[in-house]
Structure formats: structure tokens, C-alpha cells
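Lecture 7 notes: from sequence to structure.
We start with the chain below.
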Amino acid sequence: MKFTIDIDNLYTLEKYLSILSLGILDCLEKNILSYDDAMDILYRPGLIDKFEEVVPDLGNAIHLGTELENVFSIIPDQLKQSIEQIRLINIRSIQKQTNKGKHIFYYIDEE
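Predicted C-alpha cells for the same chain:
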């Protein structure tokens, strides 16, 4: 099965991924997801450069997200602060989006 998400503009993409990021952070705090899971879903080092170029705030949040496992293992007392920093970036990204009428399309291809 293949699941495709088609987002029609960069602003909606930033909002969508920021909402996804908030959910990932919540799951990490509740030990529902591992750091590897979080990296598989969104916090991928390969995404950083492109997003920092076109959507700097989102790129910064993803960059910080890729470092969470290191923060947890090296300086665990800073983990809550790191998560909160990413959370605030995501919230700002969502709040600045005032566009209405943009669409997100989902496609399921059962191969």
C-alpha cells in the first residue's frame, strides 16, 4: 500500500509539519515513540538543509529535533528545555498561517 499526501503550497506544508512535530514531541515525552521513530517520521538530517533554505523556522525545528536523542543521552537535564524550544517554534509556525482555503489531499493506492 502506498499513502501519498499532496499539499498545495509551502505555507500549508509548514503548518502541517509543525502540527506533526507537536504530536511527535508529545509522544516522545510520554514514551510512546522512540527517538529513532521520531527521526523516521520527521526529524531527518537529510531534510534540514532544504527546509532551512525555504522555510527557516521549520528547518530550525527539524534540526533541533534531530539532536533530541543526543540531548537525552548527553545532557538529559536539558531535554525538557529542548523539547519546549521546538514546541514554541512549531506553535509560531502554526499561528502565523492565516491562509484559508488551502487544501491537503490524501491518496491511498492499494498495490
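Points to note: Residues 18 and 91 are 7 Å apart (CA to CA). The longest strand covers residues 2-7.
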